[in-house]
């Protein structure tokens, strides 16, 4: 993952100084070293049923906090990628029991004073469960000039029931990227704005706002069909590598195709950047793909 990220930040950051630390900035990101880099309240390290590697962090029961202050030395006003893996326990009755989880990136100056909020992700109660391993991915704002540290924080609320109210966190990434997100309305928070339906099937994917994977909105369909978005990339240097990332949940035996095509200025297809098929999405399974595509 570090290699993939360092390729992504080959970074001339839109004309600004290059970052010299284009790697994961988080220390002990997968908790494998049992290190003291993480500051914790009501958490413990566990080695059973682990998301990634041999060790993960367990938050709860009840409210819990996990954070780390990460040095931004060598990071020059890039917008870092933020990612982590999460799942939750089920209670004795076998019901989903997860509580709210909030992940935040906070910019601090060299005296650890608050400068601003780089990112806030809210994972609603009930979204995490024990059979889906979800990788959350987002991008922060550009690192402010006077920021010296980033505080990577996870805050857990209280679950529906008191028993087994646990959330598990693993493999946390905060890594500089060369550019900002280029997909518009990628989280479907603004209905289906910027997403175009294939003309023969307008009902393929509609906007919905209940039980979204991240934040409040998502797109859903019961039918065959596709939605797409044309994204302008001529302002990026040639051979820029791209990361494509998304969350998906299937109910029943369904499959999903993903396609990235390169178009010329008049909209004519001139090549395929990526073609993937995710077969048999199983009920309540959520997966996420990180794919590099070069133009
Ligand atoms: Ca781990
Ligand atoms: Ca969303």
Query: For this structure, what is the CATH homologous superfamily of the largest domain?
Result: Galactose-binding domain-like
CATH architecture of the largest domain: Sandwich
Order of helices and strands: HEEEEEEEEEEEEEEEEEEEE
**Secondary-structure-derived class:** mainly beta
- Helical segment count: 1
Could you give the distance between the termini?
21 Å
- What percent strand? 35-45%
Helix content: under 10%
Key features of this structure:
295 residues, mainly beta, Jelly Rolls, five-stranded antiparallel β-sheet, 1 helix, globular, disordered C terminus, binds calcium ion
What this model shows, in words?
By secondary structure, this protein is an all-beta fold. The chain folds into two domains: 2-175, Galactose-binding domain-like (Jelly Rolls, Sandwich); 196-294, no CATH class. The chain contains one helix and 20 strands. The protein has one helix spanning 2-8, and strands at residues 39-41, 43-46, 56-59, 64-71, 81-88, 101-108, 114-123, 134-139, 149-156, 167-175, 196-197, 206-208, 218-220, 227-228, 241-244, 247-250, 254-263, 269-281, 285-288, 291-294. Strand 17 and strand 18 form a beta hairpin. The protein is globular, with a radius of gyration of 20 Å. The relative contact order is 0.17. It binds calcium ion (2 copies). One calcium ion (CA) is lined by residues 187-189, 212, 214-215, 217-218. One calcium ion binds at residues 187-189, 212, 214-215, 217-218.
